[in-house]
Amino acid sequence: MTKNYRLLLAAVALAALGPASVVRAQVFGDDVLPVVEITLSSADLETLFAPGNEESDTELLATFRWTSPSLSAVIDSVGFRLRGNTSRISQKKSFKVSFNSFRPGGKWEGLEKLNLNGEHNDPTIMRSKVAWDLFRHMGVPASRANHVQVFINGANYGLYVNVEHVDEEFLQRYFGDDTGNLYKALWPADLTVVGSGGASAYRPSGADRRPYDLTQGATDSDGYDDLAQLIGLINNTSGSGFKGAIEGAMDVDGLLKAQAVTVLTGSWDSYWFLKNNFYLYNNPATGKWHYVPFDFDNTFGIWWEGIWPGLNWTTRDVYDWGHPAEARPLMTRIMAVPEFRERYTYYLRELLEDHFVPSTLEAEISRLKALTEDAAEADTFRTKDYGYTVADYHASFIAPLSGHVTEGLLPYISGRYSSALGQLDEGQIAPLISSVRVLPERPRWHDSLRVSAQIVTGSLALAQVEYWPDVPQRQSVTMAQRAGDIYAGVVPPLGDNGTMDLRVRAVDGSGNERTSSLLRIRVDESKPPIYINELMAANETVVQDEFGEYDDWVELYNASEGSVSIAGWTLTDRLDQVGRYTLPDVSIPGRGHLLIWLDGQPEQGPLHAGFRLSAAGEQVALLEADGREVDYVSFGAQTPDRSLSRHTDGFPFFIVTLPTPGSPNPLVE
């Protein structure tokens, strides 16, 4: 699917994520403390903890039991192993549960794996949970997380944080597509060019540690070309061209939101400071790379000062936050673009006003502590790595401890809140405009243009598309809010010379305004000459299908002289589900028509789709097999027993008339 169409679909899908995000949420619900019980043979348990076996990823056969008031389950034949980095050599280990290791395709509650993190560095066993919630408050694609109590062969292994695994299920839930390349980036993943910059420089070469590990998508031998191209773009694009290039290649707003959370939580063990712990997903659904955060136990005042003496994460400059002596080209170049810095400032301010508020976080931490403190006090494994006692557990919420806990959790939050507020750039920020998209990608002469954009501001007074078709006089149409921060408007067809300049303009309630870069749109005659020629969404008594039923239908028309194959093309009435109906292996003859029943009864034959139209009005889109849009029709409430028909076959404009399914549309005076 081509980039523009997927971007609009992904924007709509992400904006609608609210209802979908609660599906199976009981696994990650944080209003109760579930119990996870793992049972495996005594021999396998001994193997799991055997000295020298810490780096093993061998899955051991186990039984998994989950118990909570809203959900109980027993799953046998699961895989169980150690997970993590430094936690592998700690006394309190972290574990991975795999439901598909011994049962191919196995899932539980829609999940293939669970990550049970011991949080051995954090005596509160709270910091990463709070960080994950902040990412999700900001709309960053980040793992869900909650606390659980873990038992292995009946022994209490303590209080853990259950963190959603980043895999194809995660990608489907956040992006609606899991077919792209997903790279897990670990130290020293600084995104600088390696060697000649070709794919081979980033592919694994037998080393134990892969800075960029391709975990999803292509094989190692086929992957890494896209990563090499991204790193080359980051480092080698000229200064004047960088802004447009990186916006075309990456979800910059998602990156900036993630870095805003990272900076406020003091998460130094990530890209900007330590070149560690993040994912990069090359998403076919958007045509862009997405930054996905990972691993947040070293936050909110957890810091080994020997790594770089003198750094204070409570007061560190929110703009000059990265490593003081090493290259981090992505964030260095991003922060050098004034508009990106403004966006980053906006997201910091949003966090500090709405989410990273000391009183709000203190209340939430108190609630979670009340839920988990009995389990934390009974967690003897928590005490083994650094000797922190039960008293230290309680004290670490309000005070530093000896060693690496340089700030109490709550004092860090209040201190960071105050310091960050004082560091923000002054002045009002005009509305932030990004992700401007124009559909269709290949406009015909008579196609209207559907323009969408993400507009972020505190109070939006006006959003419009300004356009210039053939004439120097500026014209405009108002954009309407579609979902979340997404606004859209429809611009009339291109002018006689086949070109149009357009841009998006936004004005906030204080009169501050911003316009996007100017886009030049041109007629593209490469689009197949197939049209949605006629449709009927209120067929009550006029036209019957071969089963004698009065169903919705759509007619396709081939405006060329030659036959055109439409095998694998799709029809949809929902922008977030482009594959609603796949056309069979058929061709439409020159000047011919094809009737397709939109009746929700695919069992009736290959020309019966699995969805219906709404007589109250909606849209229908026809796409090629690769997802490129061929035609699109939006319609309002329909008249019973009348069709919406092009004035003549393939004509730009529609009229309401008597239906002519499978036959030419007559010229109506």
Structure characteristics:
globular, disordered N terminus, 28% strand, alpha+beta, 669 residues, single chain, 32 strands, 7-stranded mixed beta barrel, 6-stranded mixed sheet
Pairing-aware structural class of the strands and helices?
alpha+beta
Give helix % range: 10-25%
Strand content bin: 25-35%
Q: What is the terminal-to-terminal distance?
A: 40 Å
* Total beta-strand segments: 32
Q: Tell me, what's the shape?
A: globular
Radius of gyration: 28 Å
- Average pLDDT confidence is 91
The DSSP helix count reads: 14
Largest sheet features:
7 strands, mixed, barrel
Low-pLDDT runs: 1-24
Strand order of the largest sheet: 1-2-3-4-5-7-6
Description:
By secondary structure, the chain is an alpha+beta fold. Strand 6 and strand 7 form a beta hairpin. Helix 8 crosses helix 11 (338-355). The longest helix has 20 residues, at 358-377. It starts with a helix and ends in a 12-residue tail after the last strand. The relative contact order is 0.09.
What's the structural blueprint in terms of helices and strands?
Blueprint (H helix, E strand, L loop, with lengths): L2 H13 L1 H5 L13 E5 L2 H7 L11 E9 L2 E13 L10 E5 L14 E5 L9 H11 L7 E8 L2 E10 L3 H8 L5 E5 L26 E5 L8 H12 L2 H11 L2 H14 L5 H4 L3 E6 L4 E6 L35 H7 L2 H18 L2 H20 L12 H6 L13 H15 L8 E8 L9 E8 L3 E9 L6 E4 L1 E4 L2 E6 L7 E10 L4 E3 L3 E4 L7 E7 L15 E7 L5 E2 L4 E3 L8 E2 L4 E2 L4 E6 L9 E2 L8 E6 L5 E7 L7 E4 L7 E4 L12
Parallel strand pairs: 1-6, 27-28
Antiparallel strand pairs: 1-2, 2-3, 3-4, 4-5, 5-7, 6-7, 8-9, 8-10, 10-11, 12-13, 13-17, 14-15, 14-18, 16-17, 18-19, 18-20, 21-22, 21-31, 22-27, 23-26, 24-25, 24-29, 29-30, 31-32
Helix pairs in contact: 8-11
